[in-house]
Amino acid sequence: MRNMGIGNFRQIIFVFCLFINALELVAQSNPSIDALGDGSQKIISDTAHHQTASLLKMKTKWEFSTNVTLALSRFTGNVSRNLNDDPYLIMVRKIDVDQGAAWRLGVNGFRTNSQSNFPDRVSSENWASLVIGREWRSELQQGAFIYGGIDSRGIFRQSHSEATQFNDLGQRIFSITDAKEYGGSVGGICGFGWRFQDRIAIYTEALLNAQYTRTDRTFSVNGSITTLENKNNLKIVPMVPIALFLTIKF
User: Fold this and answer.
1) Which residues contact residue 205 at a Cβ distance below 8 angstroms, ignoring those fewer than 6 apart?
2) pLDDT at residue 207 above 90?
3) Domain shared by 50 and 149, yes or no
4) Which secondary-structure segment (H or E) carries 38?
5) Are residues 25 and 139 in the same domain?
6) Quick one: average pLDDT of 164-190?
7) DSSP character for 49?
8) pLDDT at 52 exceeding the cut of 60
């Protein structure tokens, strides 16, 4: 019995020593854990600071946009879309420092010349549209964004045709047809878009404008001028989102 008591006492001492050693190991490991935690926090803080600095560097000052509706229409087999209906074909935006608003400048236009021999006819047509406005933006989730603003637009269109014919008596008949339309509009815009990445996006927009135009058309035969139309037009022009634009930030 005495030997069994001594054996149990030795086992208790042995377990107690193991317990003390374990406590010492835990105490020694705490500074390492604290140091590891401090290091992890520092890494996270440095990463967040780097990301913030990167975002500040990624803030852009300009955007260039172009109408890609016709390209998509040809891709799908529908080439009936007329880009001359759109207020602008290309646009440049100057973005504010906080990225929340931008000035916009857009242009659209064309010039055509044609000539035929029977009858002898020469025709030309010029058309131009200039848009200047201001927009305010709001970012949504998953790269989506919306914006609203105000646009002013200048419009100019001119067509001119000259034809030479001969009557039954062999007399020369020279005729001129001339038409001009010019004016402007002002109104509101509302658009929606989605960003593929920070610098590339697509968008479409709707507008509602009050538009004024002046139309003058004349026809002359051998110098004798006849006025066909002198008209002032004032109307409200709504436009639903029918054009798609691709924009690149730089």
Assistant:
1) 147, 189, 190, 191, 192, 241, 243, 245
2) yes
3) no
4) helix 2-58
5) no
6) 93
7) H
8) no
| Nearest by Cα to 68 from 192, 188, 204, 198 | 204
Tokens of 52: 């913030």
Cβ atoms of residues 44 and 228 within 8 Å: no
152 with 224, same domain? Answer: yes
Distances in Å between the Cα of 94 and the Cα atoms of 34, 211, 218, 238, 250 are: 50, 26, 42, 26, 10
Residue 5 structure tokens: 């008591």
My answer on whether 209 and 152 are in the same domain is: yes
The secondary structure of residue 86, as a DSSP letter, is: S
The answer to whether residues 165 and 50 belong to one domain is no
Give the residue from 200, 186, 199, 188 showing the smallest Cα distance to 245. 200
Q: For residues 13 and 75, state if they share a domain.
A: no
- The candidate with the shortest Cα–Cα distance to 135, out of 96, 90, 86, is 96
Confidence band, pLDDT 50/70/90 cuts, at residue 77: low
Q: Are 121 and 159 in contact (CB under 8 A)?
A: no
Copy the structure tokens of residue 56: 């500040």
What pLDDT band is residue 81 in, cutting at 50, 70 and 90?
low
**Do 122 and 182 share a domain, yes or no?**
yes
Of 58, 85, 107, the one marking the end of a domain is: 58
Q: Which of 119, 225, 116, 113 is nearest to 164 (CA)?
A: 119
What is the rounded distance in angstroms from the CA atom of residue 183 to the CA atom of residue 87? 13
47 in the same domain as 75: no
Q: How far apart are CA 125 and CA 153, in angstroms?
A: 20
